[in-house]
Amino acid sequence: MTTPSFPVSAIVAAQRPHRKDAARNFDALLAAAREAFAENGADASLEDIARRAGVGIGTLYRNFPTRRALFESVYADEVDALCQAAVEVADREPWEALTAWLDRFAGYMVTKRAVREALEGESEILGACRDSMYAAGGPLFERAQQAGEARPDMDFGDLLRMVAGISATQFSDDEQRDRVLAIALDGVRTRR
Amino acid sequence: MTTPSFPVSAIVAAQRPHRKDAARNFDALLAAAREAFAENGADASLEDIARRAGVGIGTLYRNFPTRRALFESVYADEVDALCQAAVEVADREPWEALTAWLDRFAGYMVTKRAVREALEGESEILGACRDSMYAAGGPLFERAQQAGEARPDMDFGDLLRMVAGISATQFSDDEQRDRVLAIALDGVRTRR
DNA sequence: ACTCTAACGGAGGCACCCCTCCGGTTCAAC
DNA sequence: GTTGAACCGGAGGGGTGCCTCCGTTAGAGT
Fold first, then answer.
1. Which residues fall within 8 angstroms of residue A114, CB to CB, at 6 or more apart?
2. Residues in domain HTH tetR-type (chains A, B) (predicted)?
3. How far apart are CA B133 and CA B131, in angstroms?
């Protein structure tokens, strides 16, 4: 949005320890945390995460002094992937590109309900994630607007929250989720 | 939906104790629980609820043996109010009646995020709540469909989840929430 | 091979929550 | 007014989570 976008996961990579065993533990912790956050939401037990990683609780705290620090690290590269997806989609027709990216975005939200909370939180890296996301998806939306495909009386933030809200909801099955999302996106599309 | 609708709060009223002090505590507990659930979601601390009600934890457990029992009782009359609103709105134009009711529904979702979870849970009274809600709102939607105002390729369950999802999301302000909701509902409306 | 420093793991103190149980209290019926 | 049944409050035992601290271990540089 305002900030230039760059791979937020680089910030995390910089914190990866140099020693071999330490690096291994660092990775195991991230993997375990990713699992745990997906299963139990953002307030998963830290002790459980250490257990899953086969690591002492002390090691967890040494690498990630706060729950938030761990949380941020976990999602940095998911956000990167999302940004990457925006690039891959850029050469399609405006509306098609936008919806393709939003589908991808929605796909994340289903399992990673925690990402959603991150969209609001205030912090160095989480802010960078949000900025990256806006920088990646925003232009897709604006292009659709300029092509006259998306309604002009809303902004990208509106759209993102709409999609986030819908995809975070529990549906009876994936079909229902897709159906509802498509209907809502119909409301975003310009009438002709 | 399938079950006939009747005031679910009557089920709760039947469990209110007869003795004066007991009845007072029962009411205080419900009020405290309503507050706590609104603030902290469905997993608010039971001990905190008892504290707020100025009552021992034992009293809470005597009246509501499980967290779920308390939870159900709290929301029964909110659901009743929602059903009542459907009646009040029934004499307006089909589309206008539907959106008016959905606005009311959305209003609940903002604060009472717990109601949303109730929409899925399985249990005697929670099931009755869901049925009541469908019985109240469903006809409004079908009327709009028959009037050619709402698209025919979706059902009331789709609509409810869409609105629930959007309103449960955190927005920067109420205006944004209303704006996004209106856009999504535009997708529900038949094109002309 | 040796060292010494960075990293390890988990015990332990604290806080919170759940739920049961029981001695004391209060209502209401007679 | 008396009385007994219904109701009360909260102490207490068990569980889980958070975070710190420190004796032990193992990698990296020489």
1. A37, A38, A41, A42, A71, A75
2. 23-82
3. 5
Separation CA A93–CA A109 (nearest Å): 24
Residues of A with CB under 8 A from a CB of B: 116, 120, 151, 154, 157-158, 161-162, 164-172, 176, 179-180, 183-188, 191
In tens, the pLDDT along B28-48 reads 999 999 999 988 888 899 999
Which residue type is seen at A186? D
Q: Taking the domains of chain B in order of start, what are their residue ranges?
A: 9-188
Please state, in angstroms and as integers, the Cα–Cα distance from residue B157 to each residue in A84, A191, B79, B89, following that order.
Answer: 35, 25, 16, 20
> Residue A144 burial by CB count (10 A; 0-12/13-18/19+): exposed, middle or buried?
buried
**Alpha-helical segments (H) within A41-173:** 46-53, 57-63, 67-88, 94-111, 113-118, 124-146, 156-168
Taking 3-state DSSP, the helix, strand and coil percentages for chain B, each rounded to the nearest 5, stand at 75, 0, 25
d(CA A88, CA A82): 10
Residue B71 CA, chain-centre distance (Å), reads: 12
Tokens in use for B166? 């959007």
List phi, psi (to 5°) of B150.
Answer: -110, 145
Of B165, B170, B179, the CB nearest to A158: B179
Rounded to an integer, what distance in angstroms lies between the CA atom of residue B35 and that of residue B41? 10
Per-residue pLDDT tens digits for B127-168:
778 888 899 999 999 999 999 999 999 999 999 999 999 998
| CATH superfamily of the B9-188 domain | Tetracycline Repressor, domain 2 (1.10.357.10)
Q: Which amino acid is at B121?
A: G
